[in-house]
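## retry 2 of 3
previous attempt timed out at serialization; input unchanged, resubmitting
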Amino acid sequence: MTYAARPAIPTELDLEAFSHLVYAMRHRVSSPRPGNHASRSPGPFGRFQGLSLLAGDNDARRIDLKASITDPFEEIRIRRFAQPSNGTVWILVDLSGSMGFEGTVSRHAVAVALAAGLAEAVRRAGDKVGIVAACGDAAPVFELQPTRRASAPLEVATSLAAVQPSGAGLEGLAKCAASLPASPSLVFVVSDFAAPLGEIGTLLDALALHDVRPLVVADPDAEMPNRRFGLVHLDDLEGAGRGLIFLRPLLLATWRRERTARRQALFRLFVQTGCQPLQVTGQIDLRSLSEDLLSGTVAA
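## retry succeeded, writing output
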């Protein structure tokens, strides 16, 4: 296993490619600022919510003439609407030791590109974006409070690229998740999810109030050794040490079964907690990512 040097910082042109990503929030947002998401906020246009009396809502621009003329009590009726509004999107980035793995691609580089690219997509959609990154069980190494600043995506890319992935597990990220505002938000979790399933469950439980979309950063080189027979050095992805094993067909078959079982258990956990996982294998395929964001489903 090899670990990458500091990844290249995505350019403005790289981030621009993410600007057309479309996403939707499963919950209704509450904001006076017009946007693209279904909301509970009253406004002059949007989703029709019924009729009310002019005396209770004195906006004469929305008088319903037909309803007013036919009202048996001769009351003037106006239309009520819930206008589409802006929301807040959080991006949680796992920078534990396993995210420093470099196989087909650098996991660190993919995580940086995803976080900064999603920040650009959110900003272009008119929503606020907030970001928290943590290494293992340590305190956050980067925090960005919800903002619409045009410079935010490049700031995210620069800051995350400068962090060396380290530590083990998702305890630090789970603590960050527990401190997010209580109002429901869309939350992307960028990670390889190599931590124990118990820790992943704790993280998802901390995000129970939110619409969670795990972005699973996968790499075929991390799934199976690149040799099929003979002595091989293997490293624990979370830094627990290095070992020497003798690869043989029976061991490889067992390895393959256990990796498949673990992957299936991970996706079952996502389903049980109501999450909509998206898998990014190798290089980022923006077309596939966009389709998964719209459908909310991905094959395990």
